[in-house]
Amino acid sequence: MKAIENWNAFVPGETFLLEGQVKGPLSGLTLSVKDLFDVAGHPTGAGNPDWLASHAVPDRHAPLVQTLLDAGACIVGKTITEEFAYSLVGENMHYGTPVNPHNPDCIPGGSSSGAAVSAAAGLCDFAVGTDTAGSVRLPASFCGLWGFRPSHGALSSQGVVPLAPSFDVPGWMSKSVDHLLQVGSVVLPPDQKLAAPDRLKLALPEDLWLRVQPGFRSALQASIDRIVPSFQGLSHASLAQDHLQAWQDAFRCVQGHEAWASHGAWIRSHQPRLGPGIKERFEWASTIQDEEANRARASMLKHAEVVHAYLDDAVICMPTVANLAPLKGHASSDEDRTNAMSLLCIASMAGLPQVTMPLAVLDGKALGLSLMGGRHSDRQLLAMAQRIRNMLI
Fold first, then answer.
1. Which residue is catalytic, options 34, 78, 201, 365?
2. What is the average pLDDT value for the chain, to the nearest integer?
3. CA angle 300, 331, 10 (to 5 degrees)
4. Which domains, ranges and CATH numbers included, belong to the chain?
5. What is the pLDDT of residues 21-46, one digit of tens each?
6. 1 pLDDT band (50/70/90 cuts)?
7. Which pairing describes strands 201-203 and 126-131: parallel, antiparallel, or unpaired?
8. Contacts of residue 223, Cβ cutoff 8 Å, sequence gap at least 6
């Protein structure tokens, strides 16, 4: 294995050992923490040196960090994030690009880029990140990891630098689905009353599968065929009825409006150095008027209700991302970005749990398959992922 510094996963100067309780359900496990979470005695930089310099070092842990330490896990450092988590690429102008262990010539994906790399490189047992519009799910897929985005509101976001609070959730990634489940058993609340898994259909919405790159279906088909008997039948019914673009547009508008509400005043007062893409995204967000955002939010809530109804008797099965990891220095096409966001925005706008599973490799690149369940079915969804792993080994 390369030296820790060669992976460029950690914020410079922020590798350390913070030990958890001696005995606990996570004793013996190590984790990294995305540089949006407060860790007492360590600066929270949010991926931007100007933010780091203008904010005091926290004197207490974010509640989620405290819970993990109390459960016995040990923190090994804080990982690089794209600035304010407002990108899915994984590059940071100030701190560089973490190296994707699965495909070193490709981007790791973001914004939880350092988190994904630290887990995939074996530098920790699991990594804690955040997911607003795919920032755990996408890098987990690109780096060949198991990754989990919980239901919105299931975990505390206190002590975490926000981006768009209506969508922000902490999440985690690991090379081991067992570790994914162990963490969930500690931090997640009990599921709400749910249908038994064998009473749920496995849904492969045709309109979602039409958004992905050629070869995805054939690469994943063998795994899907093995999964189907565990469910009450199979469905290919469309989810969005050809309205995925409208769903994405409404989501991006609300996300941008909230991102500017979260950081606009600070950006105007401090004039920070922002990297390419981040700078332009915030400039666009600053132009979104309240009336436009309110209309988009009303539309988005209607779209979310469609998803909730679809999941009454089903679990959605879909590729996590619509494209494979691009090479470094080769930006994704507009079509790839649009298709990726069309898939990723669904769980975000509807506040749903989603688990991504590293079940295939295509053209030498990692390809994740996801399960998305109803709101507050988090523990059930993680258990499904573990059963699928056991079926496929």
1. 34
2. 96
3. 85
4. 4-187 (3.90.1300.10), 197-244+292-392 (3.90.1300.10)
5. 988 999 999 999 999 999 999 999 99
6. very low
7. unpaired
8. 359, 360, 369, 388, 392
CA separation (Å) from 9 to 3, 4, 18, 131, 303?
Answer: 11, 8, 17, 18, 37
What DSSP state is assigned to residue 42?
A: B
Strands 314-319, 354-362: pairing is unpaired
Q: DSSP letters of 196-225?
A: -GGGSEEE--HHHHTTSPTTHHHHHHHHHH
Tell me if 342 sits within 8 A of 248, measured CB to CB.
yes
End-to-end CA distance of the chain: 25
pLDDT tops 90 at residue 176: yes
Q: Name the residue among 81, 116, 87 with its Cα closest to residue 101.
A: 116
Q: Side chain identity at 214, as an amino acid letter?
A: P
Contact 145, 358 (CB under 8 A): yes
Quick check: 47 and 80 in contact, CB under 8 A?
yes
Phi, psi angles (nearest 5°) of residue 360? -155, 160
Q: Which one of 32, 113, 135, 262 is the catalytic residue? A: 135
Beta bridge partners of residue 169, listed in sequence order: 131
Residue type, 151: S
In three-state form (DSSP H/G/I as H, E/B as E, the rest C), the secondary structure along 130-184 is EECCCCCHHHHHHHCCEEEECCCCCCCCCCECCCCCCCCEEEEEECCHHHHHHHH
Helix (H) or strand (E) holding 371: strand 365-372
Q: Rounded to an integer, what distance in angstroms lies between the CA atom of residue 378 and that of residue 30?
A: 22
Predicted TM-score (pTM) of this structure? 0.97
34 assigned to active site: yes
Collapse the DSSP code of 129 into the 3-class scheme (helix H, G, I; strand E, B; otherwise coil) and give the result: strand
Choose the catalytic residue: 32, 111, 157, 332. Answer: 111
Residue 5 pLDDT: 78
Phi and psi at residue 90, to the nearest 5° = 110, 5
Angle at which helix 378-392 crosses helix 216-227, to 10 degrees, equals 100
Q: 391 pLDDT exceeds 80?
A: yes
pLDDT at 195: 77
Which residues face 327 on adjacent strands? 106
pLDDT score, position 2: 56
Show the tokens assigned to 374.
């109803």
Distances (CA, A) of 147 to 114, 137, 244, 291: 14, 6, 24, 36
